[in-house]
């Protein structure tokens, strides 16, 4: 049984028909003790069937530990979206519901390798000289979450030192508790700086500045 219906498949084909370059969806799964692993793999594989520019690689999180460590994958299910280089774009948990849109946008932007951000934002992000980790906590039923996820992924593409994760809050409840996720989207920057809601680019950049200043202090 397919996860994507015929209408959705046709829309996806149209959306992905002019990808600027090849994209790899690197999936980490483990059939034992992972609630949505099988569905996440299937979703990636069905997406891969809809564009000749997309290839799907599937790894077992335990058996392929070296590959997981190489890509910084620390939980499953996970998808790393990689273009001509690895920009640090990650999905943890199944990107279903509204988050399927985030996955499609990630594929398009990674293929192009060019973030859709303001010139000021791109310049600031390109000058970041230390690792910065953005986690965006979401649920599949949240219509505002894709904006926050896509913006974070754009920022990862803009800087070799930024990595950005979509984290499905219900699949990783221990993280939702750790980061006090009471509502979504909730963006966590470098573990300490938080941002609620689908904030615009300038507000997120201000929070990144705050996180960098904390790291210096």
Structure characterization notes:
The structure is a single chain. This protein is of the alpha/beta class. The protein has one domain (6-216): Glutaredoxin (3-Layer(aba) Sandwich), CATH 3.40.30. 40% of the residues lie in helices and 21% in strands. It has eight helices and eight strands, in the order αβαβαββααβαβαββα. The chain has helices spanning 6-16, 37-48, 65-70, 99-112, 119-126, 145-158, 173-178, 201-216; strands at 23-29, 54-60, 78-82, 89-92, 132-138, 162-168, 186-189, 193-196. Strands 2-1-3-4-6-5-7-8 form an eight-stranded mixed β-sheet. Strand 3 and strand 4 form a beta hairpin. Helix 4 (99-112) packs parallel to helix 6. It is globular and about 50 Å long.
List the helices and strands and how they pair.
Layout: H1 6-16, E1 23-29, H2 37-48, E2 54-60, H3 65-70, E3 78-82, E4 89-92, H4 99-112, H5 119-126, E5 132-138, H6 145-158, E6 162-168, H7 173-178, E7 186-189, E8 193-196, H8 201-216
Helix pairs in contact: 4-6
